[in-house]
Specification:
Elements: H1 2-29, H2 33-50, H3 79-86
Helix pairs in contact: 1-2, 2-3
Length: 106
């Protein structure tokens, strides 16, 4: 319970502080690398705070000149953030249509 609260507070503060900076950076520089790096760092720190250990096998087989589609079976709430951290390069998400009714996501 204490760990979960700590992680929720950390992620909220992290997003509130770095989120606007990342958005302005993307808008001005037309480069999303800072936002990806900030998001990956947030996921890594949240994972450490939660005590989550992730082992990735086969990442070296991913060719940077190819596109890939990764599908998560959502066994928990940490699936999507872990994929962001585990997959090299830029990551795009596909969400169901109903999620677009949520103002932050649409």
């Amino acid at each position: 319970m204490i760990r979960a609260t700590l992680v929720y507070v950390f992620v909220a503060v992290y997003v509130l502080v770095l989120g606007p900076i990342a958005i302005v950076w993307i808008w001005l520089a037309r480069d999303a690398r800072f936002a990806y790096a900030a998001a990956r760092l947030c996921v890594r720190i949240a994972g450490l705070l939660c005590g989550v250990r992730v082992r990735v096998r086969g990442r070296e087989k991913l060719r940077p000149d190819c596109n890939y589609f990764f599908l998560s079976n959502h066994q928990g709430n940490f699936d999507a953030p872990v994929l962001l951290h585990a997959i090299p390069g830029d990551v795009r998400a596909v969400i169901k249509q109903e999620m677009m009714r949520i103002p932050v996501l649409s």
